[in-house]
Specification:
The protein is α+β, with helices and mostly antiparallel strands and 239 residues long. Helices cover 27% and strands 32% of the residues. The strands form three sheets. Strands 4-5-6-9-8-7 form a six-stranded antiparallel β-sheet. Strands 1-2 form a two-stranded antiparallel sheet.
């Protein structure tokens, strides 16, 4: 005889996980309204208070958002660019524009010591390296290299990425049920090397902004490590 391991998580956490799984499975899409708290409580056979706590937890995780007097909605999948736009120096954030991504390559690689440490995998483990450039008004303004564990995800390739408008995060959300949240970022100034200069169409030695950032699953596990080299001689970047 086998026994079922009991679930000792609070009931509202169990309900929040159920709802998150249903969202990941596509039952509700971005900006869809969820049923009312009463309707969810009835269908899940729990109290309205339990549902309210579960929804609040998902709102705090960025999976849902609320509109006063209208209800609770599924948040859009976060984009690789992030939330901040691009402005000319001195412009207000209200004038911000958002660049579009072009995929350059998606290849398997072996994790360097730094990549392994950031992703929490062993050194030389198989990883995907995804390279893309960001364009604004016809100009290339940034170059990204993103690293993802190939042992955890086996659905990533250039063809699938292009199916999802070159968005890794959209691919993971729809194919793997993983909706990422953006972690803290670090920014510092660097000088363009020959390869980066050629891809960003700037001379070698041009000052650039290097941003390093991880993307996390709801569990807190690191899904991706991303490095971005951004031109800064004509643009500013706002949050």
């Amino acid at each position: 005889m086998t026994s079922v391991k009991p679930n000792f998580n609070p009931l509202y956490e169990q309900i929040s996980h159920q709802l998150a799984d249903r969202i990941a499975a596509g039952e509700w899409m971005s900006h869809d309204a969820l049923p009312s708290e009463w309707a969810l409580a009835a269908s899940l056979r729990v109290s309205q208070g339990t549902v309210r706590k579960a929804l609040a937890s998902l709102v705090s995780q960025g999976l849902l958002y609320r509109q006063q007097g209208k209800g609770t909605f599924v948040a859009a999948v976060v984009g690789e660019w992030g939330e901040g736009g691009v402005v000319q120096p001195g412009q207000a954030a209200a004038c911000a524009e958002f660049p579009r991504a072009d995929l350059l390559a998606c290849v398997r690689d072996h994790a360097s010591e730094e990549v392994a440490e950031r992703l929490g995998v062993r050194r030389a483990a198989s990883v995907y390296r995804i390279r893309q450039v960001w364009r604004l008004g016809g100009a290339v303004i940034a170059l990204d290299d993103a690293y993802v564990s190939a042992d955890r995800f086996d659905v990533i390739d250039a063809r699938r990425l292009r199916q999802y408008d070159n968005s890794l995060y959209a691919l993971l959300a729809r194919r793997e049920g993983v909706r990422v949240v953006l972690g803290a970022r670090q920014v510092r100034a660097v000088l363009a090397d020959r390869e980066a200069g050629a891809l960003l169409t700037v001379p070698q030695g041009t000052p650039l902004l290097l941003t390093q950032r991880v993307a996390l699953a709801r569990s807190g596990e690191v899904v991706e490590w991303r490095l971005r080299l951004a031109r800064c001689e004509r643009w500013s970047y706002c949050d």
